[in-house]
Amino acid sequence: MPVYIVGVGEQPEDGVRLVAAYLDREQAGFEQVPAEDNPPAPPELTALAHAHGVDTCYDAGAGPVQVGARTLTAVLAALGIDAGTPELAAEALERHRTESARRLLPPTVVAWQGRRTALDLPAGAEVRIELEQGGEPWELTVEHAHWLPEDLPPGRHVLAVRADGRAARAALVVAPPRIPEPRGRSWGFLAQLYSVLSERSWGMGDLADLAELAQWAGAELGAGFLQINPLHAGMPGAPSDPSPYRPSSRRFADPVHLRIEAVPEYARHEEARELAHRARLLREEVLEHDALIDRDSVWSLKRRALELLHTVPRGVGREAAYRAFVRREGEWLERYAVWNALAEAHGGGWHSWPKGLRHPANPQVAAAKAELKDRIEFHRWLAWLVDEQLHAAQRAATDAGMPIGLIHDLAVGVHPDGADAWALQDVLAAGISTGAPPDAFNAHGQDWGLPPWRPDALAEAGYAPFAALIASAARHAGAIRIDHVMGLFRLWWVPEGALPTQGTYVRYDAEAMLAVLALEAHRAGTAVIGEDLGTVEPGVRERLADHGVLGTSVLWFERDWQADGAVLPPEHWRPGCLATLTTHDLPSTAARLTGEHVELRHRLGLLARPLAEEQDAAAAELADWQRELVRIGLLAEGEPATPEALYAYLLATPAKLVGVWLPDTVGDPRPQNLPGTWDQYPNWRLPVADATGTPRTLDALATAPGTAGIAATLAPLNTPPDLPPPGHADRRTPPGAAV
User: Fold this and answer.
1) Which keywords fit this entry according to its UniProt record (predicted)?
2) What are the φ and ψ backbone dihedral angles of 713, each rounded to 5 degrees?
């Protein structure tokens, strides 16, 4: 099947993005690495794989590649199917066909509001719909074929059927056809929160800094949103993995982001207040001595303060709020807190824990909960504090006039040893890692080390885990960004012990995934931005757009790839996107304009071609965009490109949202993450700095000349005064409305 390679690939270390789209395949060394000991699949195995949504052939741009038998067998085993021999595969296929024919309903049924949904049921079947909201169920009788009512309320209901002496129940997801979209156009900052320090934070940016950044950007500059990196809970232990894209949990945010002084109990504990003086030293080390952000030292100090604050009695009002949070978050919070307490006792890798503790339903876990109840309570309390401060940050953004406010980033997966992988192991594929096939950037494919959802288990669970994840991400946000949004359709599965080239795509029920996404976004009143850079199947972008999911467009990749690769004129850009000049994984604008990004990769031995060739290619690329800026009147002939001119170009496109990389305001040439490196470069640990590498505080960013220049350029996108006051759901386009 043909694909679009539109800008980036994937990187195994931490799920980051790599520039790849416009590399010449021969220069990039594009070739298919042979898969040894992976013979062709027999027809029985091929048919069985197709029946379970496992691709037996793929094309990443170099022609069709057949998937080997060992890969298919291992992937099917992760789906609970023994296909180790042709005979077993044939038996499993026959069993699947028999069970499918016997089943009255699939595990989950999807219906879209305002559209007719057919049920294939025997004549005379009795249908009962039990509404999520409660109340009187809907009773229906099928005469021949049946269509579900078009006016079913949105929700996750239950569909019960009786026919021919058989009975079946299924989850019924009823979703609005479109996700709420932002009203009008707006611009905003893209920031890595840890990198944005103030004179008040404890050595790294925190949630109070986030609130202040949003207040300033909204009230003073007219920005409409603030997109930040994933704030997911990281893996415990030191040294910690600083990447926000390999978290322990995607459901709960990391308490390292807390502003300790903003915890109400702080004022009542003198020893905790004394720790703030030590925190000042951490902050000064970063800001005055050009040090890297030391997350482990920050957390060590904050954890000590939080341990002290946890001993302070809460008033009745705060206690009631805490208990309400615990009830709302339910079993997932309980498992998250239990995992953290067990990790303190046995280490972070739960696969090596005592056997009885490796599954949350085991009796030994119940016994451990009684022993660790104080630590479990502590971790529940931490999750609540972070939730409170996230709420305050979003409120600060909307109170400052932002029509969207915060845009939270949802990583594509979780660490295999983390809290979510332990709590959700029944719906995650054991012995499998997600990744990417061989492509124009990496002939050897990529393994990200993240366990994927099992599509069959998700369906049997009525997609409840996925729904809870989306609801949590959207709770304190005006929009969410979904990393590698193509994962709603398919993911590249790599069996444990296999090379990334020995993987295959596994299909998800995209209709169900999109319906759940639309339903939860509708409930929260949030927009959705899909990171759709990379290898994208034909039709995927169109289908996402049909449901109101905005895409991501990076200026340097916007070319007419179907023709001669020429720069794409602004009027030909898609309107339904967040348009940017860069991302956290790509060179900053300052580096693009000077060629410093090539020099950096050369120093680290990361270039695929000789330095001179890479420099020539970078210069030619920049010249293409300079000519385009001159053509549309944003530069004079012979004038060098500037950040302001490039952002003016984004303004000239119809893009719904325009994102400004916050370090661009002070000319920071360094990328926050350099794909292809691990310890050779300080990924995810750099404070925002100016062109000389001197860290700049949030207060300094507010007065930087570059900030004023970019904000003035994008002022036409400032929030119109006649927009309704910021709220949550009612400030957005209603589902299904034309935009």
Assistant:
1) Carbohydrate metabolism, Glycosyltransferase, Transferase
2) -60, -40
Extended strands (E) in 456-608: 479-482, 490-495, 504-507, 527-530, 535-536, 551-554, 577-580
* Cα(632)–Cα(622) distance, integer angstroms: 16
| Phi, psi dihedrals of residue 118, rounded to the nearest 5° | -85, 145
> What are the tens digits of pLDDT across the range 661-704?
999 999 999 999 998 888 899 999 999 999 999 999 999 999 99
Sign of CA pseudo-dihedral 283, 274, 258, 331: positive
* DSSP per-residue letters across 389-426: HHHHHHHHHHHTT-SSEEEEEE-S---TTSHHHHHTTT
pLDDT tens across 400-453, in order? 999 999 999 999 999 999 999 999 999 999 999 999 998 766 778 889 999 999
| Pairing status of strand 166-175 against strand 108-112 | parallel
Residue 616 and residue 680: Cα distance in Å, rounded? 25
Joined together, the tokens standing for residue 634 give 């944003």
Name the token pair of 175.
């979703």
Give yes or no for a contact between 406 and 397, defined as CB atoms under 8 angstroms apart. Answer: yes
User: For residue 700, what is the enclosing H or E element?
Assistant: helix 698-703
CA gap 278, 202 in Å, rounded:
9
pLDDT in tens, 337-353: 999 999 999 998 999 99
Q: Are 257 and 231 in contact (CB under 8 A)?
A: yes
d(CA 126, CA 128): 7
pLDDT of residue 142: 64
Q: Which DSSP helix (H) or strand (E) runs through 158? A: strand 155-163
- Number of alpha carbons in the 13 Å side-chain half-sphere of residue 197: 31
Structure tokens at 460: 């049997």
Instruction: Assign 587 a pLDDT band (cuts: 50, 70, 90).
Output: very high
Using CA atoms, how far apart are residues 367 and 343, in angstroms rounded to an integer? 15
- d(C-alpha 622, C-alpha 601), whole Å: 17
pLDDT of residue 123: 80
* Average predicted confidence (pLDDT) for the chain: 89
Residue 108: beta bridge partners? 171
Pick the closest to residue 432 from 496, 515, 480 (CA basis).
496
pLDDT of residue 143: 62
600, containing H or E segment: helix 596-603
**DSSP per residue over 161-183, as a string?**
EEETTEEEEEEEEEE-SS----S
- Asked whether the whole model's pTM tops 0.85, one would answer yes
Q: Find the distance separating the first CA and the last CA of the chain, reported in whole Å.
A: 33
Q: Tell me the C-alpha distance between 699 and 168, whole Å.
A: 61
Does the pLDDT at position 572 exceed 50?
A: yes
Residue 13: predicted pLDDT = 33
Distances (CA, A) of 78 to 55, 132, 454, 494, 716: 14, 32, 8, 11, 52
DSSP-derived secondary structure for 429-450: -TTEEEEE-S-SS-TT-EE---
Side chain identity at residue 633, one-letter code: G
Question: CB of 72 within 8 A of CB of 55?
Answer: no
